[in-house]
């Protein structure tokens, strides 16, 4: 348990070791530019914008940590300390390497997708506040706008039979940063084997049987996965620069 006599310290881990093939050929997804600046830089700034975040750990491609460090050193991130560590072959392995790099005095951990470069600071702060209030795991999420169908998978291109329609009011589209009590997240990574049905860190915690709670997400915290997402992100960034003085 954290020492109640000292301030609660929060750090963010950003896994950025993936290739992002759905965006097409070129640099790894996190290093694609958005408004002339790599998405990874925007993502680090989004975490560092929270006054509660004192450390950001970027998990780079396994053979690219020096290059990522040099890239980040070209930019300013305010008061937050920055570490860069090499990642692993999978996302879970990369997140674990980021966790291993955290100092002992970190109590709250955020895990944030580098491909969500425009998450507002209010969303980051809401996640942190919920963890500090006692939730072991917190995810920002939005209600679904579309009806969702459960199907029986078929080979690509074939028609798939519908097997059910989940009640949309009970579903949420999950975003990041996801926030955790550090010890809970470490236990999840130590306990749950990759590939056991969890597709995010909150899913690992769920597999432990620990509670996960949802706080409101934001429509601008979308994930840049496909070329059309990049077009939308450029439009959001242009609007911010015109109205908010965003850099």
UniProtKB/TrEMBL annotation:
Gene3D superfamilies assigned to the protein according to its UniProt record, in alphabetical order = Spore Coat Polysaccharide Biosynthesis Protein SpsA, Chain A
Q: Which UniProt keywords apply?
A: Isoprene biosynthesis, Nucleotidyltransferase, Transferase
Which pathway is it part of?
Isoprenoid biosynthesis; isopentenyl diphosphate biosynthesis via DXP pathway; isopentenyl diphosphate from 1-deoxy-D-xylulose 5-phosphate: step 2/6
Which reaction is the catalytic activity of this chain? 2-C-methyl-D-erythritol 4-phosphate + CTP + H(+) = 4-CDP-2-C-methyl-D-erythritol + diphosphate
- Extract one GO molecular function annotation from the record: 2-C-methyl-D-erythritol 4-phosphate cytidylyltransferase activity
SUPFAM superfamilies, per database record? Nucleotide-diphospho-sugar transferases
**Which Pfam families does the entry mention?**
IspD
**Could you say which enzyme class this protein belongs to?**
transferase
- List the PROSITE patterns: ISPD (PS01295)
Spell out the InterPro entries in the cross-references.
IspD (IPR001228), IspD/TarI (IPR034683), IspD/TarI_cytidylyltransf_bact (IPR050088), ISPD_synthase_CS (IPR018294), Nucleotide-diphossugar_trans (IPR029044)
The residues annotated as site (Positions MEP for the nucleophilic attack) are 168, 223
Site residues, Transition state stabilizer: 22, 29
- According to the lineage, what is the superkingdom? Bacteria
The answer to keyword Transferase applying to this record is yes
| E.C. number | 2.7.7.60
Which family does the entry's similarity section mention? Belongs to the IspD/TarI cytidylyltransferase family. IspD subfamily.
Q: What does this protein do?
A: Catalyzes the formation of 4-diphosphocytidyl-2-C-methyl-D-erythritol from CTP and 2-C-methyl-D-erythritol 4-phosphate (MEP).
HAMAP family, per the entry:
IspD
What is the protein's given name?
2-C-methyl-D-erythritol 4-phosphate cytidylyltransferase
- This protein's species is Streptomyces catenulae
Lineage summary:
Bacteria, Bacillati, Actinomycetota, Actinomycetes, Kitasatosporales
Q: What is the name of the gene encoding this protein?
A: ispD
